[in-house]
Specification:
Layout (H helix, E strand, L loop, with lengths): L1 H18 L5 H19 L4 H15 L11 H10 L3 H13 L3 H5 L6 H4 L2 H12 L4 H8 L6 H11 L4 H13 L1 H12 L2 H4 L12 H18 L4 H16 L3 H25 L3 H4 L2 H31 L18 H13 L6 H28 L5
């Protein structure tokens, strides 16, 4: 018994000595990072469903002499089962489809195109990453942060640049949660007080169930014809939405958007955190990825507002350009930001429904943009 106690104390001493040595300094820094993630999730409610397990995975992998990511380690098993195979992000896409209501889109279909402008950040950031010396595949994965869509980012990075998974995932989800902080100053800088105060009328009416049922099937077929490489992404979104609108598999729909999504989010968060080992994560590359991710969200917002101003012009001042900022994939956060900012200038202005339409366009647009990027990569011989 005494021998076991002494052995344990010896291991504790060795671990402590390692952690506070120069070799263990990166791990010590990452333990602090894990604490910051816990603080953001618990104290400030910043994406807690993901940041909490990410922080815990980061804690586990950076403890002295940790073996959780070694062969047969618990996090290595989770990682190989769901991240390497891309199963986790695809299952989350089923949940996203099951949660998404496309009715606002059909009531104001022209605004759907605002979701296209919200994808410009992908391609600009991709070009910047190439200019900074990242490889083609790394640049594509960094550019996808501009989709403002965490599962899409993880899907790409786990497949084509797994060594960047931690940095890219943290950047994607951090900036998604910071949309309410990033977007309002850009809106104020780009739009006049008059533009911000434009009232939009709510379009009333109902959408038939047959339309809602056919929509995911039509979108899937079009995606398959344009970019077949993106069918796994779009297929899972459309499956979730098809189940939702069919109204005949409510148990599956409920499980997809609740139990399955929650379990997969937990495992995915732990696996992302497990890639944040100090010696791997703390590099200049990580800082560059974080900076490029921020620029991607800024570019998305800027181009969305520019298209919103164009819509305002051609509509004779009937469309509030603020809703252009909602054309990102951060659903429904961007729509709520547009509503909040709009009501600061007119308490009776209700932009939520048209902003939800633009936000839905951004949700679909991000997956279509990613599918097109995959198709281009395949055409250039970058992927098989």
């Amino acid at each position: 018994m005494l021998q076991h106690i002494l052995s344990g104390l010896g291991g504790l001493l060795n671990g402590s000595q390692y952690l506070f040595s120069m070799n263990g300094l990166p791990n010590l820094v990452m333990l602090v990072v894990a604490g910051v993630l816990f603080w953001l999730a618990i104290k400030h409610d910043v994406e807690p469903l993901l940041l909490l397990p990410i922080g815990f995975g980061c804690l586990l992998v950076n403890l002295p002499l940790s073996e959780v990511m070694m062969k047969d380690g618990v996090l290595r098993i989770f990682y190989d089962a769901g991240v390497t195979t891309e199963i986790y992000p695809l299952l989350i896409f089923v949940g996203i489809g099951a949660m998404t209501d496309f009715r606002p889109l059909f009531k104001n279909p022209s605004i759907f195109l605002l979701g296209a402008a919200g994808q410009f950040g992908i391609f600009i950031t991709l070009a910047l990453a190439l200019w900074l010396g990242f490889t083609q595949l790394e640049s594509v994965c960094i550019g996808i942060i501009g989709a403002c869509d965490g599962p899409t980012t993880i899907f790409f990075t786990s497949q084509y640049a797994p060594h960047l998974l931690g940095a890219v995932s943290v950047a994607a989800y951090s900036y998604m949660s910071l949309v309410p902080v990033i977007q309002p100053p850009i809106i104020r800088a780009m739009l006049t007080k008059k533009e911000r105060g434009i009232r939009m009328t709510t379009i009333k009416g109902s959408v038939s169930q047959i339309t809602l049922i056919l929509f995911p099937i039509i979108v899937l077929v079009i995606t398959g014809l344009i970019a077949p490489k993106g069918l796994p992404l779009m297929g899972m979104v459309c499956l979730g939405n098809f189940m939702r609108e069919s109204k005949v598999v409510e148990r599956l729909t409920h499980a997809s958007e609740n139990e399955i999504a929650n379990v997969v989010t937990l495992l995915l968060g732990l696996c992302i955190g497990a890639t944040m080992e100090g010696h791997i994560f703390l590099k200049t590359t990580t800082l560059l990825i974080l900076a490029l991710g921020f620029l991607a969200i800024v570019f998305d917002t800027v181009f969305g507002l520019l298209l919103g101003k164009f819509y305002c012009l051609v509509s004779g001042g009937k469309i509030n350009p603020i809703i252009g900022a909602a054309g990102l994939s951060a659903y429904p956060m961007c729509a709520r930001v547009a509503q909040t900012v709009g009501q600061k200038y007119d308490k009776k202005n209700f932009l939520l429904m048209p902003a939800m339409c633009a936000n839905t366009g951004g949700q679909i647009g991000s997956v279509i943009a990613a599918s097109i990027v995959l198709g281009v990569m395949q055409g250039l011989g970058m992927v098989p």
